[in-house]
Amino acid sequence: MDIYQESDPSTANTHSPCETYLNTYPPQSQEQIETTKQNRSYPRTINNGKIDPESVTNERSKDDEISEEKKKKWTRFQKFTIVTMSLVNFASAASFSVISPFFPKEAGKKGASTLEIGLIFGVYELVIFITAPFFGKFIPKLGCKFMFVSGVFVGGICSILFGFLDQCPDGIVYVVMCFLTRIIEALGCSMFTTASFAIIAGEFPNEVAIVFGLLETFNGFGFMVGPPLGGALYEAAGYKLPFMVMGGFLVLCAVAAFFFLPKPDDQLPHTGSMTRLSSFMCSSSLFLSTKT
Q1: Paired residues of 46 in beta bridges
Q2: What is d(CA 178, CA 166) in angstroms, rounded to the nearest whole number?
Q3: Least confidently predicted of 17-31, 116-130, 137-151, 185-199
Q4: Where are the alpha helices (DSSP H) in the chain?
Q5: 42-77 pLDDT, tens per residue?
Q6: Rounded to whole angstroms, how far apart are CA atoms 175 and 107?
Q7: Which DSSP symbol is given to 171?
């Protein structure tokens, strides 16, 4: 007696591939049946009551290709992007914290109160907190790269200008100029920080968490290095040198970002908006330079 069961042609289209497999082959143990049911999600081809081995091989090769794509290494262009953005995060954090060792003493000499000095420090993060959502709406019009490079450049220029504020008259003029410079520098930081989120999501869609963690590491490293670096440069050459070094480094980072960051696909030719934004930043910088 033939122990194999012949499948009924009239019911060939009423059974799933898994049921056909179980009805066609000899009786199996319960463990084998469960294993077969777990694998029924694979659309395998059945010819004459047998599973086509080639279809199974093709399915496994597709799974291997997907896993290999996930394990692909970063391209050279992606590495340039990571290095550029990491240096920008480091320089921005260091530029923010570089004034902490000596600025309170220098500002006190110029007639600034302790409260005013604290507000000059705090207004930086306050401006970023308020303006970041608004800059996010400008990204589709201006493009990620334009906003990032412009923000880094504005931050570097304002950091350099902050080094000339010791030439301002004492009293309220000095305090107001410190606030204005700090606010515009924070606007630049808000621009490139907001744009960096979009760039990372576009260039590293499967590794967003890893890239953000790397950038935050450099950000924390900048906050750690900034105060001792500022104190050393201040003792070496006075008030201006810390701002010249950090501001100049940010400007160089802006130039590097212009060449190494990816060309944005979402940058639209809204030249009017680009002109208004760039004119606002340039006029603010020129205003500060004339005052100092």
Answers
A1: 51
A2: 10
A3: 17-31
A4: 17-24, 30-38, 53-70, 76-97, 103-109, 114-142, 144-162, 172-203, 208-237, 240-260, 271-291
A5: 444 445 555 555 554 555 555 555 544 555 677 877
A6: 8
A7: T
